[in-house]
Specification:
This protein has helices at about 1-35, 100-105, 175-180; strands at about 45, 55-60, 60-65, 70-80, 85-95, 110-125, 125-135, 140-155, 155-165, 185. By secondary structure, the chain is of the alpha+beta class. Strands 3-4-5-9-8-7-6 form a 7-stranded antiparallel beta sheet, with helices on both faces.
Length: about 200
């Protein structure tokens, strides 16, 4: 009886391992398909000016960096080539919890908003949240908004905000957002020692 239990346990462990690797393979391929479906073939890396972080945006998108201040250490706006996705990336100087920041953003919205959804999010070892909500402007257009808040250090939060018009929104756009947000990384610092 014990041999049968051991054999069944071994088979189940092997099946779980196969499922885990299959899921990772499927997730990576799904993101690639989503990028290609939206005519995105490659990403361009941007440095957050002396802040030690970089991120990547599709190379066909227009990126405009904005002036920074003591709270917003880095700011850049972006638009997709077709202008169906727009948004911005910011590096904030704050010790506030990311959930508090997200709630403040919702509370300060001037537009009517609905369908709020907050969930935990993590990538590249950074933990944070993902906030989704719908806004509506006076002339009747509705927009689907997706914001990511990542705690990058004790005093730094990375914020990515994406907006898409409801009529042009596709379900696979979240995969594009995830690829962009997961591209954030700490830049490696190189030291050169000169021996004289």
């Amino acid at each position: 009886m014990k041999k049968k239990q051991l054999l069944m346990t071994a088979v189940l462990v092997i099946l779980v391992i196969i499922l885990i690797f299959s899921q990772r393979f499927f997730n990576n391929n799904f993101k690639q398909v989503a990028l290609l479906d939206n005519d995105i073939s490659s990403l361009e890396e941007f440095s957050m000016k002396n802040q030690g972080y970089s991120y990547s945006i599709p190379e066909t998108w227009v990126v405009k960096e904005k002036a920074e201040n003591s709270y917003k250490l880095y700011q850049a706006e972006f638009n997709s080539e077709e202008k169906n996705i727009m948004g911005y990336v910011e590096l904030l100087s704050t010790e506030e919890d990311v959930k508090v920041l997200a709630q403040k953003d919702i509370d300060n919205l001037a537009l009517k908003h609905s369908n709020e959804n907050i969930e935990n999010y993590s990538c590249n070892g950074y933990k944070g949240i993902k906030l989704e909500y719908t806004t509506k402007v006076e002339n009747g257009y509705s927009f689907i908004n997706t914001n990511y808040y990542l705690r990058l250090g004790d005093t730094k939060v990375g914020k990515f905000a994406f907006t898409a018009k409801k009529g042009s929104y596709k379900d696979n756009m979240n995969a594009i957002y995830d690829v962009i947000v997961s591209s954030i990384s700490a830049q490696k610092k190189y030291f050169i020692f000169i021996i004289t």
